[in-house]
Protein 1
Amino acid sequence: MSSASTSKITSTLPSGTTKNYFLKTGTGQAAEIMFAGEHASLNALHNAVPSLCPRSYGWGMFAEGNEKSFLVTDFLNLSGRGGSSERGETMSLAQKMAKLHTTPAPIPEGYDKPMYGFAVPTCCGDTPQDNMFTESWAEFYAERRLKFILGRAEKRNGRDEELADLVEKTARKVVPRLLREGHLGGEEGIKPVVVHGDLWSGNASRGTIMDGGEEEERGVQDVVYDSSACYAHSEYELGIQKMFGGFGAAFFEEYHKLCPKTEPVEEYEDRISLYELYVL
């Protein structure tokens, strides 16, 4: 959120030790939606791979009644990505993302199996996302991503008939062609996994998660933040990663050794191009 403010909070615990927290604040309904989504997103990622990102402790509204919202997480002491070659015993970012993308999604409350979507709305940048749980990945991507963002754009800027026609054709023809059940993933199909949802180079770095526990003791390692999570096809994550750069060939080579490309492999580049459309 472009208008968010950040602060560091230092607290003295009953044991006498100090703990640092990261505080993010913002005003208006957009901040409230964003912080609720980021709280759930960080904890979904942290639950799957604890060393990947800070955990969130809570979010809410300040008592003053000024429509100001807050988010409180572990403090992340960033040091930049330049030292990534000296990892010691810590996992690389590629290894952490591969673990994230091979960890089965939990079953949402009220359902009997994992679903695509997320329990709360999230924001990609300042744009809210419709994360309504959906059984079909092709349907989720067509309806909750492509068509939804088109609707948001039309509401803000008016309708462009050529753009609307292209999105409709993509949702009706290209998405089923590449992502339909029984085709994507072959006979085994695919299963939803949690994704960061906004993983460009600006949301990944090297740093220390100042949680006072095992992660802090491990010191500097590869971390991510500012997540906009959902349960999705693992390759959905790679669209924005490839589009904005910052993740070189070595990253993807290491990643795909642990999280292989989905069948049909020959359509991998087509799927990545399709997933890039959402962030254009």
Protein 2
Amino acid sequence: MTAIESEQLEHASEPQAKTAAEPETQDKVLPFLDHLEELRWVLIKSFIVLLVSTVICVGFAGRIMDVFTHPLTKMAEQLSGPAGKVSANLLRSLKPSEAFMASMKAAVVAGIVISSPIIFYYVWGFVAPGLIRKERRAVVPIFVTGVGFFFLGVVLCYTVVLQVCLAFLWNYSIRMSALPAWSLESYMSFVLTLLIAFGLAFELPVVVALLARCGLVHSRSLAKKRIYAIFIIFIVSAILTPPDIMSQILLGLPMIGLYEISILAARLIEKKS
């Protein structure tokens, strides 16, 4: 009877062991599913914020287009006196839907800019819990500096570079006995490409500083390879900018200065470490 009772006790304990093991497997699976669910809500909320911002900007599409065409207006005023409305005198709508599509593109870009702080807040709320305190302290300054340098490049391009490039292309067309008659679509593509290119180019010091902090690059090696870097910079400028030599030069020269700033940033980080 004792042996039978012991066997019954063993059989009775087996289901309990299985049920005790089940919560362990659930504990391993549930956090991952929770992260996916949280990521899904971050994407949904980010999309809603972007959609609402874009819809609001559509109502101000005319004023947003004035912002994008302001460099062309200023350039025209400097070349030939007051130019009046740019959309009526300098830019052409070559297709029935071109003006509408150009204004929608401008509204989408403005919506992205307006909603980006809220979207970054959602993304940071998703990423931050997985970082330790040291990592948070390291990520926040790099992120803020990166955003600042991006907008610095955009502002420099908008206030200075665009007018120089437009004046060069305008005068060159006249020298080639061609009447400048730019379309809205081509102008918007040119402006957006140049703005984004300058914003990305100004991220060079931030990227180099991050690599130096990780120990992947050294200031002395960056200084020794300066000539190769200048060659690569002008190749990258030719890829990022529209196909005209003036915009490539105007992007390449600041990037050379940014490369020198990157060397100094890497040197400071090496001294601190």
Protein 3
Amino acid sequence: MTIFVVDIGGTYMRLALSDDGQNFINDPQKIRTDIFGGVTDALLSFVQQQKYNPNQITHILIAKSGRNNWDISKEQILILFPNSKFSLINDFAANALGLVNANLDDLHHIGGQKIMPDTHYPMAVIGSGTGLGLAYINTARHIQRTHGGHMLPPFTTKEQFELFGELQKLKIIKTIPIYEDALSGNGILNIYKILSTRHHLDCEYTDAHHLLATGRNNPLVQQSLKFYHEIFGLFAHQALAFGHSYGALYLTGGITDRIMTHDLFDKETFFENLYQNNVPVVLNDVKSTPVFWVKDEFISLKGLLKQAASL
């Protein structure tokens, strides 16, 4: 038995192989998607690099982001891997599956009165990356997908209302204003662009990764991050309250990882907006919820590996 697990995001994909359904053969790899013409090119390249024959693969599980435009069908996968069972699931559902039995070493507690996940309640998973994802793990260990990142945000200040109005002008597809407009890689970059235009300054950064890696002393980057964490806190508050998911809040995703690793997480602003002055029963529940950063960027592959047992 050889299991091939793949998480395909909007910018990066993560891949690994397992012969026992428990452990990865080698360290999982993270590779940009834009170097491949499509999913079959990427899968075949990785398997050959690992010196495996495609006929050896017995299970292929792929998690795919809606921000990736590759066409993926069972037929095209089985042409290359004829002996495999195939499953395609949402990328954020895979993240949630990986967190069902997460190792505490893979988590970093950043707030909340409780310091351990409380399995008596559902738990929320929020991921900021190329897009914005929200999923719930309920008490029966069922994973609930959502379109939470595509919901209209509440504007609690005039500045937020004006910011989303300007973000709207930068969108190619003119949907309603949504949380993802701000809480994503393009979101934080566009906030910075808007602030640069307001101050009649040229943009120093052309992508979010460069901005987060080198912009910590730039006042406009600092202001952009403050807006980002305000909106992030608002979104997290709603996610917990709507899902009654006071068991844990897990923060994951490529942008979240970079913010954390570059020591740019604005804890004060995030928690100020997470702990809104709501009625006592809601505020107390939100304050009790343990908040974790998921340090393991391959948690989705672990979720897919668990899913393989049901194929």
Protein 4
Amino acid sequence: MDMTLDALDPGERWSRLGVGSTAVLLGLEIRRVELKLTNPVRTSHGEHRRRPVVLVRLSGVDHGAPVEGWGECAALADRSYDAEDVDDSFSILEETLGPALLSATSIAGHLPSLKALGALRSLAPDAPLAYAALEMAVADTHLRSTGSSFVDWIGAPAGPVRAGAVVGEFRDVGELLSRVNVLLDQGYPRIKMKIGRGADVEPIAAVRQAHPELFLQVDGNEDYTESDIDHLAGLDRYGLACLEQPFHRDDLATHARLAHRAATPICLDESLASPETVVSALEMGACSVVCVKPARLGGIGPALEVIQDCSARSVPLWMGGMFETGFARAVNVALGAASGTDWPGDLSPAASYLRQDLTVPQARSLGAEDPGNLIPSRAPGMGPAFDREVVDRHTARLVRLEAGPGPGFGDG
């Protein structure tokens, strides 16, 4: 690795990834794979049993040797949590971002650096999840071609990253407690519960009574309104680590009023769609804890910017999750390491919630012995390699695009 990188912060190191690259892009694949969740996840938005995933694979050559890179899109099956679902992301990658990358690199003669890639973001301003997947694929290609790992490139420290577990809404409190007990026995130091109107006090009280010292968070998933402020302030008596996203994502003012009224720290998730919105939310007092989801922010670059800003402001943060495969989950674990946060994130191993992960067999067992403390992957690339046979078996749709002429851009 270039020794001059040692003096740069993680965000600056990230933007320099690919500078001077000689990799030539020949084509890309966009896949939709269909996966199933091990256990249904119930939230105020409904019940989720499956996890469709859009993957991007770049293929090319570097000094005559084949190179490839993968990206994973965080978009879900519907628009419950984002304005972009898997169908939207697939279409944007197929019709806009994929062709633009191929055309630009054909003219430039090489795969762009991460800084140069940012020129494509304006082509799909309302599709942060699709762009983040393309960014990940470009970065993975650069890292694999040089034998570097993501965690080493951004200079993340060695050591375990704390991971928490998530439980959905349970109709029966006894079933909820049984599930929480299983997760705690597996070694998770934090539990995050999904709650909603009419399904909050009883389950929270039961879990807190059973586990008085538990690091316990709750997630309202935008299910509450301003009329619930007094009710939500009443949750103070349960000693929660934070209350996540109780109101609609656009209603920062009501979050601020609740934050002023309640002792429980307020955390935002869906409201935080860019580094600028994070700053606005913090400055108006709408939250005091930040959930970092790289894809929703528009990729790794913006996520590193948020991490740096929260550190400068001494604002606690934690890494969110979108039920990723083991590949993208490893990316979030690496970011958790880079952030230096001691808040456990939604980082439980993919094998704990997917019936079939897509990574190679040796990667699927990562974290199995101690899922609450994860060691960041130091394999070349953004994360562990995909198992091509398993990916092919679960592929429901595949589109291949080849490089061609078009407008290019510099590597500035």
